[in-house]
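Q: Got a minute? One more chain.
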Amino acid sequence: MILALKNISKTYQSTNKKALDQISISIKEQEIMGLLGPNGAGKSTLINIIVGLLQADSGEMQWKGKSIYSPKAIKNKLGLVPQEIALYPKLTAFENLDFLASQYHIPKNLRHKRIEESLKALGLYNERNQIISEYSGGMKRRINLIAGLLHKPELLIMDEPTVGIDIQSKQAIQAFLTKLNREGTSMIYTSHMMEEAEKLCHQVAIIDLGRILVSDSPKNLISQTEGAKTLEDVFVKRTGKELRNQ
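A: Always. Here it is, folded:
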């Protein structure tokens, strides 16, 4: 087990809203775990706690079986791909990636090698000297992904990495993630795209109202849910058809 969360709870004091209620979840080494839920379910709060942007009110986090009391202790082992594009619009793609990689104190020659390899793998090498503000949404998403993994994290955490992009970029990212996972990288992956999660994830956890409703492989969840033919069917049966205005 690479990461285990035990009884994680979080309440936002400003609104008295309980965002997470006794969440327990485990991610195995070289596993892609999909974290699925409606808007406001608690997915982003959970991710922010894992990476240290928020502090849980209670609960325990373990890394490879050992309790950790601050995510800073495993900072260099984690990679984060946020839903928001976390890039400098007036810098080129290469300049963005070079600067971000330098924050992990990666030697210049090594980080340039990794940047070039990743740009080639995601079809952006020829556009490396183009400024980010001139990139399309799909191109920005691909650079956003590269930025989260140049330090070779053991666990890559992605919040909606393919939201709002073209089919070609989406397929390129999916293929890249599959290859990265086969090479040993574990992943936590949030998405509203059930078909994508069903295709990529070894395990999925459906979260709603701050609680884990169910967690298993997509195949098992489908077979165990009456009338379900797809992961989307499972999701709707578990979370309901009510619209969420959050």
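A: The chain has a mean pLDDT of 94.
Q: Perfect, thanks.
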